[in-house]
Amino acid sequence: MLTKLSQFFMRRRSWSLPYALFLLVFVVVPLLLIVAYAFTDEEGAFTLGNFRKFMVHPEAVNTFIYSIGIAMITTILCLVLGYPAAYILSQKQFNTSKTMVVLFILPMWVNILIRTLATVALFDFLQLPLGEGALIFGMVYNFLPFMIYPIYNTLQKMDQSLVEAAQDLGANPLKVFTKVVLPLSMPGIFSGILMVFMPTVSTFAIAELLTMNNIKLFGTTVQENIYNGMWNYGAALSLIMLLLIAIMSFFSNDEDNAQNESGGVI
Questions:
Q1: CA within 20 to 30 Å of 73's CA: 8, 22, 181, 206, which one?
Q2: What is the rounded (10 degree) CA torsion for 173, 77, 85, 151?
C-alpha cells in the first residue's frame, strides 16, 4: 500500500489533481450552472426567453452598450498612460527600474474596494463632483497597473540587438520605435488590453461608489437581477458578458499568433 502511494505521489501528473479539482469545482461547475440557468425558465424548462427579454429591453441594451463604451475609454486611457511608463521603465539607463515597477504594481496589492473608497475620499477632499468623470478616473487608477506590467514585461524581454541593428542601418529614433519596438511590444499591448477591458466591462462596485449609484453599468444590472431572485435572466446577462470576453480573447490570441509567425517586425 505504501509503495503504491509513493509511486502515486512520485508521478508529476498526480500533483496536478488538486488544481484540476479546484478548476472543476470553482470554474467549470459555475460556468455550467450559468449556462443551465440562462437557457431555462423558473420551472426548469428550456427557453430562449431570457435572451429575448434582453434584446427587447432598451434599458438593458443601453446599459450594455454604455458599459462597453466606458470600458473602451478606460482601456484607451490606460494604454496612452501606461505604454510610455512601461517604455521608460524598460530602458537600461533607468537604474531604479525594478524599484519603480514595484511602486507601479504596489496598488494591485490593495483591495480594489479600498482603493475606490480612497478615490471617493480624494474627490470629497478636493470638492469635486462624483459622476462619469470620477468613474473614468477611478477605472483608470484601478486598472492602470494591469496595462503597465504586461507591456513592461514584453519590452524587457525584447532582443535589443534588433534595435541596435535598426540604428546601424540609419533609422532615426521614431523609425526605430514604429518599425521595431512597437511591433515587438504588441503581445504585451494585447495582454494589457484584455487585462483592463475584461474586468472594466463587468465591474459594478466602482460605478456604485464613484457615482453614488447614479450611473449603472452592465455588471450592476447582473447583480440587481441576481439579488432580486431573477437567476435565469441574470445568468443570461452573465453569459452575454462572458461571450463578449471570449470573443475578445479569441481575437487577441489570433493577433498574438500572427505576430509570432511574422517575427514581430514590420
A1: 181
A2: -80
